[in-house]
Amino acid sequence: MKSFWPSICGLSLLITSSWLQADTLDEVKKRGFLKCGVSQGLAGFSSPDKAGQWRGIDVDLCRGVAAATLGDANKVKYTSLSAKERFTALQSGEIDLLSRNTSWTIVRDTSLAVDFPGVLYYDGQGFMAPKKLNVKTLKDLNGATVCVNLGTTTELNLADYFRSQKMTYKLVAFEKNDEVVAAYDAGRCDVMSSDQSGLYADRTRLKKPEDHVILPEIISKEPLGPAVRHGDNRWGDIVRWTLFAMIEAEELKITSANVDQQKANSNPAVRRLLGMEGDLGKNLGLKADWALQVVKQVGSYQEIFERNLGANTPLKIARGQNALWRDGGLQYSMPFR
Question: Residue 310: CB partners within 8 Å, gap ≥ 6?
Answer without folding.
Answer: 316, 317, 319
